[in-house]
Amino acid sequence: xxxxxxxxxTPRGRRGTGPRPVAFxxxxxxxxxxxxxxxxxxxxxxxxxxxxxLAVHRGLVEAxxxxxxxxxxxxxxxxxxxxxxxxxxxxxxxxRVAELFPRTVLVxxxxxxxxxxxxxxxxxxxxxxxxxEYRDGRRPVAVRYTNAREDAIRxxxxxxxxxxxxxxxxxxxxxxxxxxxAAGLIRAIGDPDRRFGExxxxxxxxxxxxxxxxxxxxxxxxxxxxxxxxAVKDVSAERVRDxxxxxxxxxxxxxxxxxxxxAELLRPxxxxxxxxxxxxxxxxxxxxxxxxEHTALVLSHLEEPSFPLAxxxxxxxxxxxxxxxxxxxxxxxxxxxxxxxxxxxxxERLRLSKRERDEVVFLVQRHxxxxxxxxxxxxxxxxxxxxxxxxxxLALCYADCRGSHGDTSLPERAEEHYRAYLAAGPRRxxxxxxxxxxxxxxLPGPRLGEILRAVEDARRDGELxxxxxxxxxxxxxxxxxxxxxxxEGGEP
Length: 492
What we know:
- Helix content is 45%, strand content 10%.
- The chain is built from 24 helices and twelve strands.
- It has three domains: 2-240, Beta Polymerase, domain 2 (2-Layer Sandwich); 270-423, Hypothetical protein af1432 (Orthogonal Bundle); 434-486, no CATH class.
């Protein structure tokens, strides 16, 4: 197997930067590839498993069932990464699990999956199974309960096909996962074409594991990804969205974007982003290169972003390709406005919540808002600072500058104004309220709200001083005559 390492696809700039595999698992020698029919057991100190998972495991074993820690938790434990959850694989069918644990939810009983509630923690318990025919590129039409070996070989990648025997304190390997974990390699179990044909989401999972762990993708697995890439469009929007979120909130988000593109998975999912390739930018502002490279760099400069912020960064310049023109220099006139409309379409396609969609669209639409921050009237700055997602916008502006010319003086000045705004304390009570204007003849409706906002803007801009009502009313009378309110005849 040694001659295959590095011949697959390596995330650019990531080799050796992921979690370090546990070398002593192999006793200093990687040895030959382990066949699917072999069982390999390697002693390993017991991991710090959650109390809930341990309680469920004990209950299964005491009832005479086999129980093994499974999948991602085993991989992460061997890499020295704290698992986010612990899943068990067992010989017990779901109905038996429900008998043993009263607080059991059969979330996927037809596929052998149950969730056991212990105190406030949820433990997923899956029956050893072999998947039968796949027809929709997502799930099998049925499953057959079986043993641990067959359960392992139906999984996606070798590093995810490991078990840990808590009773014997051994890692159990049927698929060569220990070798690939030690080598730092993403390899499909068995025939990669079959694995990706069974569940096309695995195409995206391969990319995510590669960049997040810093492991190259083994050559045959990479070639299969390229063959199946066009079929990724058949994955449901919700599943795509979840994988994109995992990629974009991870520090390897820029590498994920680049690898999605090289794997030919980006265009079927986000053609608007793929179109950024080769779109030149004015070098005096963007020495880094085209719009795609700029976007990848912006992503790399985000610090622990939320999903909407990271997605907003990914989409902030999608309006540039369709607005590209060369005049006195390269220009992208109103790309922010067009990009906001395009971003909204992307968010709807990915089935984002309304709150997430609103934040992403706001970030794309306003990502140039700081250009004239020093010249803005105080009222306009205040409205910007009052926006719910202003701090995300500020973070995007910092990343945008660092991903281009590197000059962060613009967001720094915006942050200075914002800190001064916060230091001024809570906003003052309004000078006027709608009822005061209605008493003197102004009618309720959208125009009344417009007048009240104008009064507050005038106070922030220094046109109105103090908090007295009468000067404010006279200001309104002069600029919004009651005759306009009542019509030319002066009648309501």
